[in-house]
Each structure stands twice: as C-alpha cells, then as structure tokens.
Amino acid sequence: MAEFAIAVTPSPGSMAVDFEERVNFDRLRQYRLGRVRAALDASTAGALLCFDTNNIRYTTSTQIGEWARDKMTRFSLLTREGGDPMVWDFGSAAAHHRLYAPWLKPENCRAGLNGLRGAIPPDNGLFIRTAKEVAGLLREAGVADMPLGVDIVEPPMLFALQAEGLTVIDGQQIMLDAREIKSDDEIMLLTTAAAMVDGAYQMIAEVLKPGIRENEIVALANKKLYDLGSDDVEAINAVSGERCSPHPHNFSDRLLRPGDQAFFDIIQSFNGYRTCYYRTLNVGRATTAQHDAYTKAREWIDAAIDMIKPGVSTKDVAEGFPRCDEFGFDSEFEAFGLQFGHGLGLGLHERPIISRVNSIDHPMEIRQGMVFALETYCPATDGVSAARIEEEVVVTEDGCDVITLFPAEELFVANQY
Question: Taking the model in full, what pTM does it have?
C-alpha cells in the first residue's frame, strides 16, 4: 500500500502576488513557442497549420473559451526557422488580441472564418479564401514547396489546401513532440489544477449521503471548481451502485443508497492545464467484496507508480497492468481506458499513452518532465460494485511525484455509520 503522500511539487495559489515567485507566464509562453519551433525545425514540414485549440493555445497563448473547441474556425500558422506565430480568431477576438496579447505582432492577429463546421456551406468559398491566404504566406516565407503540417482538418479545408498545390502531412505528431516535456511553470499549473480537485473531493465526501443523486454531486462539484478558479469543467463522471460495473463513463440521476460504492472522475482545467482524477468512495459502509476490489485496484496503481521513472519503457509499465481477462473483459480494446496511463497537459490525452493495446508492440521511453495520469479499475465479486483509482504523477530525475492528494491509500467510507 502506498504511503501517505506529502506535497513536493509546489502549488502556491491561483493568484499573482508580489511576494512569491509563482507561474511566470512570459517564461511559459517563451518555453512553449520554443518547443514548437524546435519540433517544427526537426521535422520535414515547412510550417504548422493548427485547428486544435490546445495546439493554438500552446503556440500563440490565445484562448477564447471552451465553446470554440468544436467550431474549427480558429487556426494558427507557424513557419520554420524563427517564423512568428499567427492566429486567426473569431470576429472581434482578433481585435482583442491586438490590444491584450503584446507577445503577438498586431498584424498577426487576424479575423478568420471557415464555416463553423459546415453551418456556412463550403460553396460559400470560405475554405478557398483561407487556403489562398495560407498558401500566400507560405510562399512569402519560402516554405511553400515543403510539406505543411496540419493537426486536425475538415475535408473541404484539406481539399482547398491541396488545390493550392500544398502537400499536407500529419502535424499533430509534431505538436505532440513539442508538448511532451512540461516546464516548471506547466507543472505548477497542473499541480494547482489538481489541488482544486482535492477540494472538490472534500466537498463530495461531506455530501455523499443516502438520498443525493449523481447529477446533484456533479452540479455541486462544478460550482466548487469554478469558485476555486477553474476555467473549464470539461466533464465529471459520477458512477454509483449497480452502474459501477461495467463502467459507463458518464453520470445519471441515480439516487445513492447506503453501502453504495461510487467513483468519480473530475476533468477540469486551470489556465488550460487539465486534471483527470478518479476517486472511489463508499456511502456510509462497505462490504468485504468492495474493500477487496479497492485493494486490488490500489495494488495495480501502486505498481505502475513504482515503475514510472526516466528511461523506463511504456511497455514495461503496460505489462504490469492486468490483462483484460483478469478483470472480466473479452478484449484489450473493450478494456481500454480502465488500466492505462496518459500524458496530461493542455490536452486530456497527450503522449505517451500507456496501455496493453498500443504500448507492448510500440513502446516509448518515459522522460523527466512528462506528466501522467495513471488509472486502474477493479470490479467487485458482488457483480455490481467496482473500484476506480487515478493518480497524476510528475516524472522526476529518479522517479515520480504524485500530485493528486485526496486520500486514496485505502477505501474512503464517507459519513461512516
């Protein structure tokens, strides 16, 4: 069993102050742009055209809200060998950036529109307009004859870029190369985000009583997180009782009852840096089967934590997770996401992904500065209950630091009878 965790990675607070060194956002912006430039220059691409909001934020340090994530209308461009980042944003947001984002050249903050996921049909010509503008900029930078890295793209945009004579390649892998290793500022933001969830779990532990519904807990947790300074509560799973096995990955209006096992996953962000943070709590009391399931899930996650250190292969960690048939599933694809690890940063799932599906045949090296969320799941022998645990860890010089600190060494029985 894991020992009681003592905070090592600093989480000084969510406000700026003059009496402590906290997150240095100028340093953060310079680090991220430097990482993208280095990854781009090391690739075969001449430029990166990004529509993924995480990549846009990483490159340009601009963000206009979670609502823009699925609109595919914002985009950024960076050319190799010291090119300056450019961003095309939604309407007046471009003018706002010119006023409040002095790290970007004013002329590089432009308004853009490609159709809002087809709401404006392609025959309106907006994709063609964007492709011509981008191609012209690539010619000016002398990289139009090199491949263009694009992270995610709508088919009409892809076709319009190709019509301009551009060769499009996968730019997401270049961006993920850049985002793999976190700076001290990024780690501080991730730790602060985890500290917010520590507080949300304290609140959940206090209200986890018979008669409260899963959706009520989700609502209370949302309020708590926004009160603490979250900028995006992306999702909260709340799973209890007979819904625990198999894991449905959502929440419902189910009423919690005495003796229920319940697990929660809180996915939210602070300055864009995300959490993925499961905890299992019982309502009032717990059975032997529920304790046994939790003990097994804890053993699996502790083994994974002990493995995480620089130079270790993701294959080695994945082989320590139980096989799908050891906890009731017919295939590793069906069991995917229940025993695994994933990089964490501006994106919820960054590289490397550690699982039996991909890591055994395609291993990657774990390196200092990576941040992972490690997850395990164990169904109970009663046929309905299950335990789910997740810890976020920062890879250090000789191991890793756990930054998710709400008690999880043993099954937490809330409001015990």
Answer: 0.96
